[in-house]
Write a structure and sequence with these properties.
Length: about 350
């Protein structure tokens, strides 16, 4: 296997490979990666694995330089991307021996590239949901942490999904509808409302959120057929909203559902339900509630829609030289703290 750095002229091939991989997500697509590169100050390395003249998968990496450190991410932090990592073509159709040999060799070659071409100090890769084999990382000295996301099987239609909700959720949704909360589709204006609502919530918690306005605008304008916005209105005022990213057979709740101060009605529950119904009627087979399985504060809200857990991984590794530096700093800190 050899590695090739994709160029602009390779973008159609790149997207075709992403489409053919069961672990290729909308985040892997060429335009999304270039938007992320633009707004994070990272340098994108769009790697294609080649067996002879046959491409076998993609592996996007982002380099960030902080002081004297060379940090590599897939995906980079503060980009509103949960996961990225390798996407191997037709992985689910390969025999197990071929899955293992391909993924192990691909990771080995990427590791060689990281060392020889980038001279990394730290690397972190977060894989797509459903890629359950973390051994290519473990066998090359990465520290691997399991992570989770929530997925609802919506292929059987909205009636089936509704019956499987927690009983209290169904009661709350019906009450919210009776109280007059309406759910509508949105556009760029509503997307800004959702962004600002979430930012305001962080500020209330004493945090300083990054301004994602231009980033989200770029995503919205670049993916008009893949992004769907829902907002709730009560007494002609916005009371919640969410953004779906739709790709292949899955609609994913990406950003939204800011906490509401309303008492006795549940606009977020209703908005989620209306977006699930839309996804069912639009032919999607899965509905993902992203970033839900690893935060105990969010678990209670999102598990009540009766999703199942889907596993993914965070794998990280330090270069031997920087690890020694970090270890010395940590031990010194421990000493002075007593």
């Amino acid at each position: 296997m050899e590695l090739k750095i994709a160029k602009k002229d390779d973008r159609e091939l790149w997207n075709e490979l992403v489409e053919k991989s069961p672990h290729g997500t909308i985040f892997h697509t060429w335009k999304f990666l270039k938007i992320v590169e633009k707004h994070t100050g990272s340098k994108l390395y769009p790697i294609i694995g080649m067996k002879g003249t046959t491409p076998i998968g993609v592996y996007p990496l982002f380099l960030q330089k902080k002081f004297f450190l060379r940090l590599v991410f897939s995906p980079p932090p503060r980009a509103l991307l949960l996961y990225l990592g390798p996407a191997i073509v037709n992985y689910d159709k390969l025999k197990q021996s071929k899955k293992e040999s391909t993924s192990v060799e691909f990771q080995r070659k990427v590791n060689e590239f990281l060392k020889s071409e980038i001279n990394y100090n730290y690397v972190r890769v977060r894989t797509s949901p459903g890629l359950i084999d973390s051994r290519p990382f473990l066998w090359t000295d990465y520290k691997v942490e399991p992570l989770y996301t929530y997925i609802i099987d919506i292929e059987k239609g909205p009636e089936y999904v509704w019956k499987n909700f927690n009983k209290q959720v169904r009661i709350d949704i019906n009450k919210t509808k009776r109280e007059g909360v309406k759910v509508e589709g949105g556009s760029e204006i509503e997307l800004e409302f959702i962004r600002k609502s979430i930012a305001d919530r962080f500020i209330e918690q004493g945090l300083k959120p990054k301004d994602y306005s231009r980033y989200l605008t770029d995503v919205y304008k670049s993916y008009p057929n893949n992004i769907k916005i829902f907002v709730g209105k009560y007494n002609d005022e916005y009371v919640g909203g969410l953004t779906l990213l739709c790709y292949k057979d899955k609609a994913s709740l990406w950003i939204g559902i800011p906490k509401t101060e309303l008492q006795g009605i549940y606009p977020n529950d209703l908005i989620v339900w209306e977006s699930i119904k839309w996804a069912c009627e639009s032919g999607y087979k899965k509905y993902e509630i992203m970033a839900a399985g690893d935060d105990p504060r969010l678990r209670h809200f999102k598990s009540k829609f009766n999703p199942y857990l889907s596993l993914w991984y965070s794998a990280e590794k330090y270069s031997s030289s920087i690890y020694k530096v970090v270890e010395k700093i940590f031990r010194f800190y421990q000493r002075i703290q007593g």
